[in-house]
Design brief:
It holds the Pfam family FKBP_C. This protein is α+β, with helices and mostly antiparallel strands. The chain is built from ten helices and nine strands. Strand 6 and strand 7 form a beta hairpin. The radius of gyration is 37 Å and the shape is globular.
Length: about 400
């Protein structure tokens, strides 16, 4: 969204519906560092639910989507507030009727809307005309993405949303939205058409589209919406990996690979934030398959391996990264921390083994003393026996001599 010189002034105040009458409300549902903080430079130009490289689809969000898709229309559309999710945190009211339910847009289509954004008290903060996005891709805030699926072509609707479906506790700089802000949105659905066939896009069009999805992921990441970020990066990856019926030159192919590696790196960063370490490791491995000396992929892979207890591999991976970029302070700090932790773990393991097996020193000492004692005992017994035999021999000789 972008600021306009003339702010909107016709958003209905959120307070005007904060306590709607029960009889006029229709429910659409039956039931209600890790990683050292990443800065602008660390996010390479770096999807809510939805899915990631290893975590599958987010059950909660998929459930929300299914319920939204099955949502019935109220009997009197222009007089009732629809409780979209059954929790009174996202509501929709028709201001101007559209062309009928059959004209609703479908997920995956590119839609065009006019959007006016106000704070809860009616203060206008942003207005956009002709805003285009792919429905269901997470290109816009969730309140818009979910409710536009319920709109008819040509319909104008008022949406009241809690912060959780808008800019959450992070707020936004563009547009200027404070943290935890409830919003009032006026949406008009202008157009819906199928997205272009990826196979027929030119390489340049693919690069531009993938970069656009990647930037959406960056925006989600910076707001702390890591699952949404994973989804956006995943969509960008699908674009870079799609087959093509259009010729591509080596330079364009390299650019697509560059975008792909950046998406994989930033997906790994998001997956680390979500504690999905196996998925993050897969993303790092994929990035390194294209660029074996990618510093960020090596760094994040080292962190993943360390989190899985693979300290030797993690240290070797970070050492490789440090060799490629000796002055990188983040790698130095992470490697130092990891070596110290590994050393402490090895010390603890050695102490545990000593406790389990006893004191090796005392065992060796006892073993050394015993043979010495045994050796002396054998020598003494041999000498005593020899003496007895000798005395006996002398006595026998005397007896024989006396008889003779």
């Amino acid at each position: 969204m972008s600021d306009k010189e003339d702010p909107v002034d016709d958003c209905e105040s959120y307070d005007s519906m904060s306590s709607p009458k029960k009889t006029g409300q229709t429910s659409l549902l039956d039931s209600g560092e890790d990683f050292m903080i990443l800065d602008e430079e660390d996010i390479d130009d770096e999807p809510p639910p939805l899915e990631d490289a290893g975590g599958g689809k987010d059950k909660n969000t998929e459930s929300i989507k299914e319920k939204v898709e099955a949502a019935p229309l109220p009997a009197n559309k222009t007089e009732e507030w629809l409780d979209v999710l059954g929790n009174e945190r996202l509501k929709k009211k028709v201001l101007e009727e559209g062309q009928g339910r059959d004209s609703r847009p479908q997920k995956g289509q590119n839609v065009v809307i006019n959007l006016k954004t106000c704070l809860k008290d009616g203060t206008p903060v942003d207005e956009q005309t002709g805003l285009t996005f792919t429905l269901g891709d997470g290109d816009v805030i969730q309140a818009v993405d979910l409710t536009v699926q319920l709109m008819e072509m040509g319909e104008k609707a008022l949406i009241h949303t809690d912060a959780i479906y808008a800019y959450s506790s992070f707020g936004s700089q563009d547009p200027a939205i404070p943290p935890d802000a409830e919003l009032s949105l006026e949406v008009e659905l202008l157009e819906a058409k199928d997205a272009p066939d990826l196979e027929l896009l030119t390489p340049r069009e693919k690069i531009a589209l993938a970069n656009s999805k990647k930037e959406k992921g960056n925006a989600h990441f910076q707001r702390g919406d890591y699952a949404f970020a994973v989804n956006s990066y995943g969509i960008a990856l699908q674009i870079t990996e799609s087959s093509s019926k259009v010729d591509i030159v080596p330079e364009e192919e390299n650019e697509l690979i560059e975008v792909k590696v950046k998406c994989l790196n930033n997906m790994a960063a998001s997956q680390l934030k979500l504690d999905r370490n196996d998925a993050a490791l897969k993303s790092c491995v994929s990035a390194l398959a294209h660029q074996p000396e990618n510093i960020k992929a090596l760094f994040r892979m080292g962190k993943v391996l360390a989190s899985q207890g693979e300290y030797d591999e993690a240290i070797q991976t970070l050492k490789k990264a440090l060799k490629l970029e000796p002055k990188n302070k983040m790698i130095h700090a992470e490697l130092s921390k990891l070596v110290k932790k590994h050393s402490e773990q090895r010390g603890a393991e050695q102490a545990m083994y000593k406790k389990m097996l006893g004191n090796p020193a005392s065992i060796n000492s006892s073993t050394q003393k015993h043979p010495a004692k045994s050796s002396w005992g054998v020598s003494w017994k041999w000498l005593f026996g020899a003496t007895v035999v000798a005395i006996g021999g002398v006595a026998l000789s005397v007896v024989i001599a006396a008889r003779n």
